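Please check our next protein.
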Amino acid sequence: MLKNIIDVFKVMWLALWAILATIVLFIPITLAATFSSTGNFAFNLSKLWAWALLIATRVRTRIVGKEKIKKGQSYIIISNHQSQFDILALVTRLGIQFRWIIKKELLKIPLFGYALLASRNIFIDRSNTKGSIESINRGMKRLPKGTCIMVFAEGTRSPDGKIHPFKKGGFVLAIDYGLPILPITINGSRKVLPKGSVVFTSGEIEVIVGDPIDTKDYTRESLPELMERTRQVIVSSFKPPLNS
């Protein structure tokens, strides 16, 4: 009974802080969208939103290998995906400008959807493959210099804590646009908030940066090799949850 009460309080606490942070930052983000053509300022403001939720839930984050990131270099960032808290950890710890390739349905979320739009993220319709490709290409051409693209290689959060097969979309982008891949491994976030749960647990999330992978010698024909090479880097630093 006590555990159920605590769980309900946690859900309400997280929702309260998410709503408050969104309302407080709505006007600044709106102004950022008006006066910034790059979306960089709006992205920086989103870090405040992420920090607010991390502090409210007492979730610590740390990064390993940040020195491997070359300032001003555009990357296709490839990461595993364990939890919604992955987003908060990546936004606050990588220290670089990046944009998401995300489903257009998120635009319907009040305030939050507008913040994503203001930050110049790339929205796709998963039911329209051709339209999605066109949207991605338009978005890539509008990216400010030095901005990266963030891709969760599994396509969705892991349901069991394991790293599942990678989808090829992010790797195709890396080859077509000649961008290096920045492999990222996330540990600990599943314990904080696993897929299917709305009750968080305070803890630590670790973000590990792997050595960048040059894609200039890869083609679409050798795509599987690039995918496997990247996957091995991410898996090598992965610490599976004990209950997975």
Summary: Residues 2-35 form the longest helix (34 residues). The chain has a mean pLDDT of 89.
